[in-house]
Amino acid sequence: MGRPAQISRSAVVAAAMAVADEHGLAGLTMPAVAARLGVTTMALYRHVASKDDLLDALVEALLPPLPPEQASWRERLGAMAAAIRDTAARHPAIFPLLLQRPAATERSREIRDGVVAALRQAGLAPDRAARAERLISTAVLGYAAGEAAGRFDHHDRHVRDEDFACLLAAIDTLIEGGGPASGPAAGRAVPGSGG
Q: Are 106 and 141 in contact (CB under 8 A)?
């Protein structure tokens, strides 16, 4: 009888990424990951505590690196947005995890805090920077997810690039204007909006 396969947490995450890329999130099961690695399902639990732990590890694997702190806030946010869009194109089936799971891991909180720090560098007050991070992240992730899912396939790549540039320009305008409003008035419905 041969020796059991030697695996690591990074090998488990890489195998899970490959399974999800091929079969989608619905096909991402612990037995499928184990089969790809040539181990028993129970062997995975020495490296990941649960399926949720594995999903959080996949989120971390999808996150872009933080740009250097000496870069301007605009360069930092632009680089992270472009990296997110590239990740969505490479991993369209698994990318929706970034919209579905909260920033629960150290790495995901580090990215969130990096965005907030860039927004603070841009001059936003702490409460506005936190709200702007949520809105900006959702807008960028949403655009990237829609594009990766084929929502904009009827448009040429240059049109999608221009659309993404317009989104980033709108974010710039929001930031330069002091960010989104905060406080009780910010949550009131706009007259005529049906809200």
A: no
